[in-house]
Design brief:
7-stranded antiparallel beta sheet; OB fold (Dihydrolipoamide Acetyltransferase, E2P); about 25% helix; single chain; globular; 3-stranded antiparallel beta sheet; alpha+beta; about 150 residues; 12 strands
């Protein structure tokens, strides 16, 4: 994706990106709609804040998820993170590449670093609780500034 596909901000020496055309939860999980299904992954902010991915364990295919339910576990050099689903439905695919290449979450969070695909059961209800890129961007910026203040 070219820069026109992202909203970007720089803090210190780091560039943080928010992909346009995606939806975001307040827990920094992204949702990309594709033919009645949703790909889920972690935002650029979450992957940077969490550190290098060492292990990504999605739930098994067939798992029913509701908003807030775990859809994956992410282990990084800094933290163990339970990733909460922002949507309801059934997990119909997992990104098998992540088993041998968990770093894809860091290298390409909005593309090859996707984690699960969910067959949606109530997109209208889910969408009401998600932010588009323009709404998520200032939330991310405030979190970046907050993290920066903690480090000073």
């Amino acid at each position: 994706m070219g820069n026109a596909d992202y909203l970007e901000t720089t803090y210190d020496k780091f560039i943080f990106r928010v992909a346009r055309g995606y939806y975001y939860s307040r827990m920094d999980i992204w949702v990309k709609l594709e033919d009645g299904t949703a790909l889920l992954g972690v935002s650029d902010f979450l992957q940077r804040r969490s550190g290098d991915a060492a292990f990504v364990e999605p739930v098994v295919i067939g798992t029913q998820v509701q908003p807030g339910d775990e859809f994956a576990h992410l282990e990084t050099i800094k933290a163990d993170i339970v990733l909460p689903s922002p949507v309801r439905g059934t997990v119909v695919a997992t990104n098998d590449e992540l088993a041998s290449r968990p770093e894809l979450v860091n290298e390409d969070p909005y593309g090859e670093g996707w984690i699960v695909r969910v067959q949606l059961t109530d997109w209208a209800a889910d969408q009401a609780n998600l932010l588009d890129a323009a709404a998520y961007f200032p939330l991310m910026q405030s979190r970046i500034e907050e993290e920066g203040r903690k480090l000073r």
